Amino acid sequence: MDFLSSIINYILNLGAPVFVPFIMLIAGLIVRMKFRDASSAAITLGVAFVGMSMLIGFMVSAIGAAAQTMMDRTGIELSIIDGGWTTMANVSWAWPYAFLMFPLQVGINIVMLMIKKTNTFNADLWNVWGKIFTAFIVVAVASPIIGGAAALVLSFIIASFQTIMELNSGDINQHRIEKLTGIPGVTCTHRMLFFAAIYYPFDLLLRRIPALNKPMDAAVLRSKIGVFAENHVIGFILGVIFGIIAGYDIATILMLGVQAATALMLFPMISKLFMQALSPISEAISDYMNKRFSGRKFFVGLDWPFMGGSSEIWFTVIVAIPFTLIWAIILPGNKILPFAGIINIALVVPAYILTNGNTLRMVILAIIGVPFFLFVGTQFAPIITDLGLMTKAIDIPPEQLISNSSIDAPVFTYAFSFLIQCVQGYFIPLLLAVYWCVGYFFYAKDLKKEASLAQKNSLDNSIN
Question: Which of 65, 118, 181, 461 has its CA 20 to 30 A from that of 165?
Answer without folding.
Answer: 181
